Amino acid sequence: MDSRKLQLAILIVVIAVIFFLPHGSRQGQGSAKPIGTPVEIKAPLGMPAVPFPRDNPPTAETIALGRRLYYDPALSLDSTVSCASCHGPEHGFTDGKPVSNGVENKTGSRNSPTVLNSAYFDVQFWDGRAPSLEKQAEGPVQNPVEMAFTLKGVEDRLNADPSYRDQFAAAFGPGQITYEMVEKAIASFERTVVVGNSPFDHWKYGHDESAVDDSVKRGFVVFTSKNKGNCSACHLVGKDYALFTDNKFHNIGVGVDMGKITDDGRYVVTKNEDDHGAFKTPCLRNIALTAPYMHDGSLKNLKDVIDYYIGGGNSNPHLDKNIRVLDFLTGQERADLQAFLESLTGEMPPNIGPPGAARQAAAPEIGK
């Protein structure tokens, strides 16, 4: 082998060694592996098994760590804003505002979607720009009007805290804290925030005819019938469980001004012409707790939502084909539809409030 070939061979080996060596805080390498006590997140009545990625199985340690991180404002630049600031349990894991406020009271442009049952979504955010709960946890930290921080800044702050170092070591093993660990812990906690077991579920899936009144039963017919509301075309109801979402994106005319779309939604992510003004179909569980509604928070209550659909939305070139005027629904049918939606309020799981708060009565249903 001549000297030139030998030098080339050495260079290739050096590059390979550099590339494959572990990198302490390098993101996206899948190096953070949860350790500790595996748990099974118990799905409530009316919901399927809770999915999770293979590289982030739930453990007692990651869930406890994620719960602490979720409520800790230290993840924001000025230590004033936590995940719970915009997604708090007192508002059904939203904030009760049309749009949220971040550091220095800066105002966002979209309504805070609920974290409830976010484990079942294929993608996250109103426009679906995050492919997982893990990656969703990166967005607000770096958003200049939300937490206005950096992933490296969070790492440095947590590494300087002895109690966090101990808790991360218990959850992921000894070593430097990386943001990959942070996002995996937060996502593991959020996957425990699942709701079902509502009066509707006891009637529909528990076969208890006394669980709801006749107005709810009539409202379910309005909700599911193609000749009535046809709401279940997007908010799916299955034979064995009900996600109340199709995990897709639709333009329903919200945020349209004089036929002009003011927020392009999913189109910004996909650049697909059909996605102009399309937003993710939200889950309807506990919807009575999460007002105001729609991606811009423009509808104050459930009656306003029903009235909006009765009117057939705001006309625009990309309006979903399933949106049509429903003025043929009677006053009774509209009231029944609202009664049905209110019947979807189910039991909150235990141990999802701030750490250190008064212990909830029930024991955690996350496995044994």
Descriptors for this entry?
4 strands; two-stranded antiparallel ribbon; mainly alpha; Cytochrome Bc1 Complex, Chain D, domain 2; 2 domains; 368 residues
Describe this structure in words.
With 368 residues, the protein is an all-alpha fold. The chain has two domains: 60-190, Cytochrome Bc1 Complex, Chain D, domain 2, CATH 1.10.760.10; 199-342, Cytochrome c-like domain (Cytochrome Bc1 Complex, Chain D, domain 2, Orthogonal Bundle). 31% of the residues lie in helices and 2% in strands. It has a two-stranded antiparallel sheet with strand order 1-4. The protein has a two-stranded antiparallel sheet with strand order 2-3. Helix 2 packs across helix 8 and helix 10 (214-224) packs across helix 13 (331-342).
Instruction: Quote the distance from N terminus to C terminus.
Output: 62 Å
Tell me the structural class: mainly alpha
| Strand arrangement in the largest pleated sheet | 1-4
Largest sheet: 2 strands, antiparallel
Helix and strand run:
HHHHHHHHHHEEEHEHH
- Rg, Å, rounded: 23 Å
Count every helix, treating DSSP H or I runs of 4 or more residues as helices. Answer: 13
**Segments where pLDDT lies below 50 for 5+ residues?**
10-29, 358-368
Q: What is the fourth-level CATH superfamily of the largest domain?
A: Cytochrome c-like domain
Apparent shape: globular
| CATH class type of the largest domain | Mainly Alpha
Question: What percent of residues are in strands?
Answer: under 5%
CATH fold-level name of the largest domain: Cytochrome Bc1 Complex, Chain D, domain 2
Q: What is the mean predicted local confidence, pLDDT? A: 91
